[in-house]
Design a protein that fits this description.
With 185 residues, the protein is α+β, with helices and mostly antiparallel strands. It is 32% helix and 27% strand. It has a 7-stranded mixed β-sheet, sandwiched between helices.
């Protein structure tokens, strides 16, 4: 298997990607042809191809906004599912977008693939009503790229086995120096 950027909108690879997306629009949601073209021209579309036959196995389409990456489509051809192709596509995206805060996606709960996103080290951050007629709930998932934050210095052992808390410095000083009655409460 080989992962290739799909940026030539006149190529066989692009045509096959749009066909696969259209064939799976019932679960992915409809994406107009011009949107596929826009993502391809922005180099935000890549596919997994068989090395020997150049057959499209699956693709991943994403967008970038507010210093975050959002997966718009991750689609694997039915014939090639359960072969770790989605994992390789998402891993490729992770490795090539480390300059951003992280990767976000939304997935309907009734698809039953929560374990897939967990296996890819995404965490659920919220649930919301979807836009379908039935209003099926969606879960928003997040994969953070390693950024320095309050918890980045804490070991996995401490996070999993101890209570971790953060306190505002002003509140801490109020308590330590007993200077604010409200903070002492």
């Amino acid at each position: 298997m080989q992962i290739k950027n799909i940026s030539d909108t006149n190529s066989f690879e692009f045509t096959k990607t749009v066909e696969l997306g259209d064939n799976n629009s019932k679960t992915l949601g409809f994406l107009p042809y011009d949107a596929f073209k826009k993502y391809a021209k922005q180099k935000q579309l890549f596919g997994a191809f068989d090395k020997e036959t150049n057959e499209l196995l699956g693709y991943l389409l994403y967008r970038i906004s507010y210093n975050r990456v959002t997966i718009v489509h991750c689609c694997i051809d039915d014939k090639y599912r359960n072969r770790n192709i989605a994992f390789k596509l998402v891993d490729f995206l992770k490795k090539n977008t480390t300059q951003y805060e992280g990767i976000r996606l939304s997935c309907r709960n009734d698809y039953g693939i929560d374990k897939v996103w967990e296996r890819f080290n995404f965490v659920p951050i919220k649930e919301r009503r979807g836009r379908s007629k039935e209003g099926f709930p969606l879960t928003d998932w997040w994969f953070p790229h390693q950024q320095n934050d309050l918890f980045s210095q804490i070991s996995d052992y401490e996070l999993n086995n101890k209570i971790v808390a953060v306190i505002d410095m002003n509140i801490f000083l109020d308590i330590k120096e007993e200077r604010e009655e409200e903070s002492l409460a």
